[in-house]
Every structure is written in C-alpha cells, then in structure tokens.
Design brief:
Elements (H helix, E strand, L loop, with lengths): L24 H11 L3 H14 L4 H13 L3 H14 L4 H28 L3 H21 L4 H13 L3 H14 L3 H25 L2 H24 L4 H13 L3 H14 L4 H13 L3 H14 L4 H24 L7 H18 L4 H13 L3 H13 L2
Helix pairs in contact: 1-2, 1-3, 2-3, 3-4, 4-5, 5-6, 6-7, 7-8, 8-9, 9-10, 9-11, 10-11, 11-13, 12-13, 13-14, 13-15, 14-15, 15-16, 16-17, 17-18
Length: 386
C-alpha cells in the first residue's frame, strides 16, 4: 500500500526571554547558553535549577524547549506538563511549541515515508518506514488531536506489513474525523483479522478461532454500516460491506439492505453492483446478471461490474454443464453462457491487461467454446504476467 504523503507548511519556532527579571544563577546561565546555542550546557544548568527549585515553572519550560530541539518529544511533553502543573505562565509558549513540533514531526515522517516508497531495497525501505513511525508517534504526542497524523502512522505500519499495529491509529483517527478512506481501511483490517482466524480454524479445528473470527466479521459489518450511513454513495465502503456481510454469514441482512438501496435509488450503480455480488455468491445467477448488466448500462466503463458480469456467465455456464454431466446428458446449452461471458472478459482485459488470473479464466472460456488457439494464447498471456 504505497502512498505519497503531503508535507505541511510550518511556522518557525522562536523562544523569547523576558528582560529585567529576578532569576537564579542557573536560569540566567541557561538562557545565555541557549542564546549561544550551547544546548548541552544549558540543559546542565536547568537540571540543577529544577533540582534546587522543584517549582521552577520557567526551568521546566526551558527544559521542554531543549528536549524538543534535540528531538526527544516525549521528554519535551513531560517537562511542559510539569511547567503547566506549577503555573499557566508559559501556556501560550508551550501551545505554540507543541504545534511547531507536531508539524515538524509530521513533515519529517512524511519525508521518511516518501523516501521509503522510492527506496530500491527492502532493507532501506524498512529503515525509512521505522523512522517515519517514530516521527509520527512524536507528532501525535505533541498534538494528539490531529486525525491526519494517526492515518499517516497507520499507512506506515501497513507498508511495513504490520496490519495489527495499524488498527489502533485508525480507530483513534475515526473518533476525531470520519472519512471514507478510514472506514474502508479499518473495515478491511477487521475482515482480514477474521479471515486469518478462520484459516487457523480450518487448520486446527479450534472452535475459539471460529468464534473470534465471527466477532471480527461482525465488527467489520458494524463499522461499515456506520460508514455507509455517513457516506451512502462511497463505492469502496459498499464493496467492503457486501464482503463483510458474506463473511459474517448475513446474506439475508445484506440482500435486504442493498435491495432497499436499489428501491430508493435505482440508478445507483454501486448499489446495483454490490447487490449483484451478493446474488452471485448466493448462486442466483439470473439475479446477478440483471444487477451487473444494469450497473454496466449505467456506466459502460465500470470494470468491476464488467468483470463480475463475465464471471456470472462463466459460473452459470459451468453449473449448466455440470448438471448435464451428472445426469449423463448431452447438453451444450452451457456454451451460450460462455459466449455471453466472452466480450465482457475481453473488455475487462483491455483495461487491465496484466492480470494473470483473468487471462487464465479467459483461456478456460475459449477452451469451453472449442477455440483452442485462442485458449493457448490466453494461457501464454497468463504465464507472461505471473
């Protein structure tokens, strides 16, 4: 899931000192060292200051500034919190500083992320993504209310192949700002967690794996239903929702939901498409044909609907052929369905020519129609793109 992120514009951070104040020798020395950018000596003076005077709001404030300058954002926050617990005198400066270090960390995270997407080796990618994660985590500590930072952190984890780590940032982001992308990603992550547990169940027959898988499928359904209410025409949310319904074995609920959507908005290609997906999975091929064909008539370039219309005809034809074989009958009417599939599959491949599985399916269609040469060419294409 590579994605190039956008860098924010930021305002430079400054630190001013009030003149003619009565201050300890440690504070006075620290300010002098800060002006001279001798930050190590300044920190040494300030640590002595807060040790002698635990109620030094300015000492903690300046320590926070120094930790921020060295990139220790967590320590910066700790020092700022101590300063604020003593007084609110430096509240505005602390607020401005946190915003500055949030933007700085955000931008550094974006820069490392974008470098990772352009890296030529897996090792260098990993190094850049690790750095991006640390910067985004620091930015979140400085400004916890920024939904975009959580999303960027999740993208970094997803690119690192750490989907479980991406869940929490996306959940927090969604509480702060509802966007279709986050509903889609989080719904898919819930589904994938369910799929993994279901795979474990099939291997071990451990009932708890099956139960936990169902829990994650239901979480995905609930989340995506909420997303559909907020963004009723978002095609990605609708697609993930129909898949979640199927995984959660809620076909009846899904059928009713998308059928109601079509009755309310019959010209909505996304409702037509997703209702078709449900009918296809229920082996109602005639019903699926109607919905996919309508979606294609509404948008002749709707490639997902074109592909699934072809798949509907292939499965329908296969069902007819296998039924005849089971009864020991000679019945070649199944070829009519494969003929209907052919132009849609060919059109899909015009737009998506590098999909080996689709070329392989086209090869099988040609084979069922007795077109050996074309079948061989399609299988060669499949091998070419593997």
């Amino acid at each position: 899931m590579k994605r190039v992120l956008i860098i924010l514009s930021i305002v430079s951070m400054g630190l001013g000192f009030s003149a003619f104040q009565c201050a300890s020798a440690e504070l006075t020395g620290a300010k002098l060292y800060i002006n001279q950018k001798q930050y190590d000596k300044a920190k040494e003076s300030l640590l002595k200051e807060v040790e002698k005077n635990p109620n030094s709001d300015e000492g903690y404030y300046l320590l926070g500034f120094l930790y921020g300058e060295e990139g220790s954002i967590m320590k910066m926050i700790e020092m700022y919190d101590k300063s604020l617990s003593i007084s609110k005198k430096y509240a505005q400066g602390i607020s401005d500083s946190k915003k500055y270090y949030w933007a700085t960390g955000f931008n550094k995270g974006v820069s490392f992320f974008n470098s990772a997407t352009k890296a030529s080796t897996p090792d260098s990618q990993r190094v850049f993504f690790d750095k991006a994660v640390r910067q985004f985590e620091g930015a979140i500590a400085a400004q916890p209310d920024s939904a975009a930072t959580y999303v960027n952190l999740a993208y970094a984890y997803l690119n690192m192949q750490k989907p479980d780590s991406a869940v929490a940032p996306l959940e927090i982001s969604l509480k702060k700002e509802k966007t279709p992308d986050v509903y889609t990603m989080l719904g898919e992550l819930y589904m994938n967690k369910g799929n993994k547990l279901m795979d474990d169940y099939k291997k071990s027959n451990n009932v708890s794996d099956s139960t936990n898988a169902t829990t994650w499928y239901n979480k995905s359904v609930s989340l995506l239903e909420e997303g559909r209410k907020t963004f009723p025409d978002d095609s990605e949310i609708l697609l993930r929702l129909s898949n979640a319904y199927i995984a959660a074995d809620k076909l009846d609920v899904a059928m009713d939901a998308f059928k109601a959507g079509i009755e309310k908005d019959p010209e909505n290609k996304y409702y037509r498409y997703n209702y078709g997906v449900l009918l296809l999975n229920a082996k109602d091929y005639a019903g699926a044909e109607t919905q996919f064909a309508k979606a294609v008539s509404l948008d002749p370039e709707y490639t997902n609907a074109i592909y699934n219309l072809a798949v509907t005809y292939v499965r329908w034809g296969t069902q007819v052929r296998e039924a005849a074989e089971a009864e020991g009958k000679e019945d070649e009417s199944y070829k009519e369905k494969f003929e209907l599939a052919l132009p849609h599959m060919e059109k899909y491949l015009e737009a998506n020519p590098k999909e080996p599985a689709v070329w392989e399916l086209l090869g099988k269609i040609y084979a069922n129609l007795g077109k050996a040469d074309k079948s061989r060419e399609a299988f060669q294409k499949a091998d070419q793109y593997r």
